[in-house]
Write a structure and sequence with these properties.
This protein has 17 helices and 26 strands. Helix 4 packs across helix 5. By secondary structure, it is of the alpha/beta class. Strands 13, 14, 15, 16, 17, 18, 19, 20 and 21 form a 9-stranded mixed sheet that branches. Among the domains are: about 220 residues, Rossmann fold; about 110 residues, GMP Synthetase, Chain A, domain 3 (2-Layer Sandwich), CATH 3.30.300. The protein starts with about 25 loop residues before the first helix and ends with a helix. Bound molecules: adenosine monophosphate. Adenosine monophosphate binds next to strand 14, strand 20 and strand 21. Belongs to the ATP-dependent AMP-binding enzyme family.
């Protein structure tokens, strides 16, 4: 009998499915404006909310693509954005990749030299920029002469911008109503570019494809990750320049979840008001944001009852945060692990169903259970895979359909990739259910007397002290032990908690030899451009003698 199936080389049979149906952001755009056309995006400007339906957003995306084409944007060109989370940013997210160009989200918290490097490296021809942010970008890129067009969102001043300057709304109004989208037959085509915050060397570009972005969006809709669905109202507190706001704009438009965009208003009070007012069901951000909200919620008791899940990641989530929200506010803060290079979803820490509450609390403290379709392992110093026994500790490596295979035009980063795996630089153990327990970044590890001390665990314990607002533990060089832990601690204003009290508090909570030798009380832990504790900055302060001096006074 004749068969339609083609045999493969190995004699196995190829499936007869439409495997070459491309997974594209254009599909997400089409679905957003039709099936999900009634869902809305609401953007907060400090006073009120501007709302649009996804159908209206789709119409504006057509005009945006027409306008960009008129400005000369071709498939493959990089179009940058320099904006907070708002409707126009969503339009860029959906439109730029759909027209075959590459959405490049610039991190507006970077230093001018870094921005300059990134704009030049990416060769951004066009930048869509929020008017209030013009003074941040203009000095950095004025002399580069690379950006041909700035498209300004808002009516504010545009002094300092070189090249041609346009107003977003005027461009859209003048653009044709419809746009003939190119066919993106190969879904491996580049869709978006995001540079890592780069703690060492130059920032590195992660170039997402249509396929990786769509699969990642679907990944976020699984119940075992965040379960984003059409009944959700999603508040991405994580900025759209940080790993594509963790993919939430795409999973929300794919499913028809409403989006609430907080703009630059990332403080506890406006966030709490948005959650209450918009009945937000999913709010995602880094731990520093939620620590603030927890303090606010403890004091003012806002109505946060609409939240079904609060994804929190980008850095280790302290126990006080998970338990504080859970016990005092009945909220489900769920830890997640990922990197810009992993799109970022890599692991999510829902507790298993077959353990008691005490054990569940420990599972929630882990970085997470490796997400479906992501493959993980830990390796020793020789690169040999290690056991998943919850004990052995090694560097985490990952691979999968939304994991980077190399950096964009930067061979200096090639050593992060080998044999199809990405080296994450995180040190962890994995248990037999695939739960990852991160003890440190490899460069933050404290090596004392040949043994590792987990800065993450020490910070967690310290932040459990009722008067401690923030704690970051770094390695201090030590003649005898190579390194010893130094704790940099921020205490509640007015509190008289000192080094002695902290040492007494930790005693018995961690192994004796883990206890920090010194405590330095500082007014604030420095933060990176994406809001994480900046240990590199703390180490630099230590090296310059700044922290040492303070330690002498305190301990
Ligand atoms: P970025 O690419 O800026 O998002 O940084 C990625 C890095 O953040 C990871 O390699 C981890 O070191 C850290 N990270 C992210 N999520 C977690 C987590 N849940 N626990 C500990 N570290 C995390």
């Amino acid at each position: 009998m004749a068969t339609d199936s083609a045999p493969t080389q190995a004699g196995s049979l190829l499936g007869l499915m439409q495997d070459d149906y491309p997974l594209t952001i254009k599909y997400i755009l089409d679905r957003a404006r039709t099936v999900n056309g009634r869902a809305t995006v609401a953007s907060f400007d400090g006073e009120g909310l501007t709302r649009a339906t996804y159908r209206e957003v789709g119409d504006r995306v057509d005009r945006l693509c027409g306008a960009l084409t008129t400005l000369g944007v071709q498939p493959g060109d990089r179009v940058a954005t320099f904006m907070w989370n708002r409707q126009e940013h969503l339009e860029a997210y959906l439109g730029i990749p759909s027209m075959g160009a590459v959405l490049h989200t610039l991190n507006l918290r970077l230093f001018p030299e870094q921005l300059q490097y990134i704009v030049e490296h990416a060769q951004d021809r066009v930048v869509i920029i929020e008017d209030t942010l013009v003074p941040l970008l203009a000095p950095a890129v004025a002399e580069l002469g690379i950006v041909e067009h700035f498209i300004v969102v808002g009516d504010g001043p545009v002094e300092g911008l070189t090249g041609q300057v346009h107003r977003y709304e005027e461009l859209l109004a003048a653009a044709p109503e419809s746009f003939a989208y190119p066919e993106i037959a190969d879904d491996r085509t580049a869709a978006a570019l995001c540079y890592t915050s780069g703690t060492t060397g130059n920032p590195k570009g992660v170039l997402y494809s249509h396929r990786s972005t769509v699969l990642h969006a679907v990944g976020e809709c699984m119940a075992d990750t965040f379960g984003i669905c059409g009944r959700d109202t999603v508040l991405p507190v994580v900025p759209m320049f940080h790993a594509n706001a963790w993919g939430l704009p795409y999973s929300s438009t794919l499913t028809g979840a409403n989006l609430v965009m907080p703009g630059k208003f990332l403080q506890a009070e406006p966030l709490a008001k948005l959650i209450t007012g918009e009945r937000v069901t999913v709010a995602a951000g880094v731990p520093t944001i939620w620590l603030d909200l927890l303090r606010y919620a403890d004091e003012y008791r806002p109505d946060l009852s609409s939240l079904r899940v609060v994804p929190c990641g980008g850095a280790a989530v302290p126990r006080v945060l998970l338990e504080g929200f859970r016990e005092r506010h009945g909220l489900n803060v769920v830890q997640a692990w990922g990197m810009t290079e992993t799109s970022p979803l890599g692991a999510v820490a829902h507790a298993p169903h077959d353990v008691d509450e005490a054990a569940a609390a420990e599972f929630r403290l882990r970085a997470g259970q490796v997400s479906p379709l992501v493959d993980v392992r830990i390796v020793d110093a020789e690169g040999e895979p290690m056991a998943w026994d919850g004990e052995a500790s090694g560097e985490v490596e990952v691979r999968g359909p939304w994991i980077a295979s190399r950096y964009y035009e930067d061979p200096t980063g090639d050593d992060k990739f080998h044999d199809g795996w990405l080296r994450t630089g995180d040190v962890a153990s994995i248990d037999d259910r695939g739960y990852i327990r991160i003890t440190d970044r490899s460069k933050d590890v404290i090596k004392s007397g040949g043994e590792w001390i987990s800065s993450v665990d020490l910070e967690n314990e310290l932040m459990g002290h009722p008067d401690v607002l923030e704690a970051a533990v770094i390695a201090k060089p030590d003649e005898r032990w190579t390194e010893r832990p130094l704790a940099c601690v921020v205490v509640r204003p007015g509190s008289d908690t000192d080094a002695e009290a902290l040492a007494a508090y930790l005693s018995g909570r961690v192994a004796k030899w883990w206890e920090p030798d010194e405590y330095v009380l500082i007014p604030e832990v420095p933060k990176t451009s994406v809001g994480k504790f900046d240990k590199k900055a703390l180490r630099a302060r230590l090296e310059s003698g700044e922290l040492r001096g303070a330690a002498g006074d305190q301990s």
